[in-house]
Design goal:
Layout lengths: L5 H9 L6 H7 L9 H9 L2 H11 L13 H8 L1 H16 L10 H21 L4 H10 L2 H9 L1 H11 L6 H9 L3 H11 L4 H8 L11 H16 L14 H6 L4 H20 L4
Helix pairs in contact: 1-12, 4-6, 5-6, 6-8, 7-8, 7-14, 7-16, 9-10, 9-12, 10-11, 12-13, 13-14
């Protein structure tokens, strides 16, 4: 067993690149509907690497338009402010975790699943009259601890991934068993290091145990969205033991079969686009 302590994790996340200032501003203004589009475009454009990734994503099959997007301002005009904020955050986060050779870990599948959870979380949030941008972002970030494991603790994480191919345990359970820590706790440490909001930190740390006291409603939304996204199988990586949605979470969101069918139908349209996306 390759045990990893929380102290090691905290040291590791301190060495990770910090998020660009514009991304931190977006994270801290999720509930601000008055965010100026021109100001956002100017700030993103100051970061050459972030601009390049934003435009590449905006021109991908997932966000395809009839017009070639050549500026951040144009991307906002064509795709909408909410979508561009999501693209900017995805671009920045993926830049902090370059692809490596962790056997059994697919960065493409990771981002597909993360975006799938984000999409379902947004749909649920809209129906529950919860802030959709906040829900989408929490869904996008919920498994970010797994990226720390794949990039900073490659050998130990390879053992976790290999174990899951032969045993019917969830990712969360296998991590706790083999390395004494899980991706939710690691994600919490990273979210604290990056100065995320308290609500976002709790959603990341509690998305597998949303019934724990004090986590808040967002953790429940992400937990349910995660379960639905796993059930829809939007990745190519086999998942023999996806996480189960707790009965308490299901009931607290007021879901029934009819409503779930509506959510699945709406999500399916977004997932069709997701499947066509070359990179996330």
């Amino acid at each position: 067993m390759n045990s990893i302590s929380l102290a090691q994790i905290i040291d590791s996340v301190k060495d990770l690149p910090t998020l660009p200032a514009i991304v931190m501003e977006l994270l801290n203004s999720m509930d601000n509907d008055e965010l100026d589009m021109h100001e956002l475009a100017q700030k993103v454009s100051l970061d050459i690497a972030l601009t390049a990734k934003t435009l590449r994503y905006a021109n991908s099959a997932y966000y395809s338009t009839m017009i070639k997007v050549t500026t951040v301002q144009q991307a906002i005009s064509l795709l909408g402010l909410s979508t561009v904020k999501q693209i900017v955050m995805t671009a920045a986060l993926s830049g902090c975790f370059p692809e490596n050779n962790c056997r059994g870990f697919s960065h493409k599948d990771f981002w597909r699943h993360s975006n799938a959870v984000a999409i379902v979380a947004k749909i649920l949030a809209r129906r529950l009259q919860f802030n959709t941008d906040v829900a989408f972002t929490a869904g996008l970030l919920h498994d970010i601890g797994a990226l720390v494991l794949a990039t900073s603790y490659t050998e130990a994480y390879e053992a976790v991934l290999a174990h899951r191919l032969e045993h019917p345990d969830t990712q969360y359970e296998t991590e706790k068993s083999l390395i004494d820590i899980d991706h939710a706790a690691i994600g919490e440490a990273l979210a604290i290091q990056w100065n995320f909001s308290e609500m976002m930190i709790k959603a990341i740390s509690g998305h597998h145990q949303p019934e724990k006291p004090g986590l808040g409603f967002l953790a429940t939304i992400i937990h349910v969205a995660d379960g639905i996204a796993h059930a829809l199988r939007v990745t190519t990586t086999p998942d023999l033991a996806p996480p189960e949605i707790t009965g308490q979470s299901w009931e607290s969101l007021g879901l029934d079969q009819a409503l779930l069918d509506e959510v699945l139908s709406e999500a399916a349209t977004e997932f069709e686009k997701l499947q066509d996306m070359v990179e996330v």
